[in-house]
Design a protein that fits this description.
With 164 residues, the protein is an alpha+beta fold. Helix content is 26%, strand content 24%. Strand 6 and strand 7 form a beta hairpin. InterPro entries: Hppk, Hppk_sf.
Length: 164
């Protein structure tokens, strides 16, 4: 059994519904052990509506490549379209990233794990720390709470009252 730590974000449409539908779909890929609180966060790297972000701890039999392919399918199924002509970030109904997969280090054409910019983003670090605070980044070899202390992201992250 493999442990995947996922980061989910949404800033288009009914954000809570988007997250709930994503969780339902992800639960078909394994056992969802933990879901963080829902955090409201400003967009990172572009101007748009605020995001709702969560982290999920998923136990799965799938290998990392199969998992990312299924997660990308879920994004598409729930309304995400990728515009390769647009440079940079853009608003989206759903974004799912594999942040960690066990303690594996993966670098393929379709997947880089640990996520290469997770240590720079409060909206990833804070929800993940909520569910696995004692985890050590396998490349940077630092506990996640140290990475959060060192993070230069000054974005205002607010825990919402919503539970999923």
């Amino acid at each position: 059994m493999n442990t995947a730590l996922l980061s989910l974000g949404t800033n288009l449409g009914n954000k809570l519904e988007n997250l709930n539908l994503a969780i339902q779909q992800i639960s078909e890929l394994g056992k969802v052990n933990q879901i963080s609180s829902v955090y409201q966060t400003p967009p990172w790297g572009f101007k748009s509506d605020d995001f709702y972000n969560i982290a999920i701890n998923l136990q799965t039999e799938l290998d990392a490549e199969s998992l990312i392919n299924k997660l990308l399918y879920i994004e598409t199924k729930l309304g995400r379209t990728r515009n390769n002509a647009t440079k940079g970030y853009q608003a989206r109904p759903l974004d799912i990233d594999i942040i960690f997969y066990n303690t594996d280090i993966i670098n393929t054409k379709t997947l880089t794990v640990p996520h290469p910019r997770m240590q720079d983003r409060n909206f990833v670090l804070i929800p993940i720390i909520e569910i696995i605070s004692n985890f050590e980044h396998p490349v940077l070899q630092k506990k996640l709470e140290i990475l959060l202390d060192e993070c230069n992201d000054n974005s205002m992250i607010t825990k919402t009252k919503h539970q999923l």
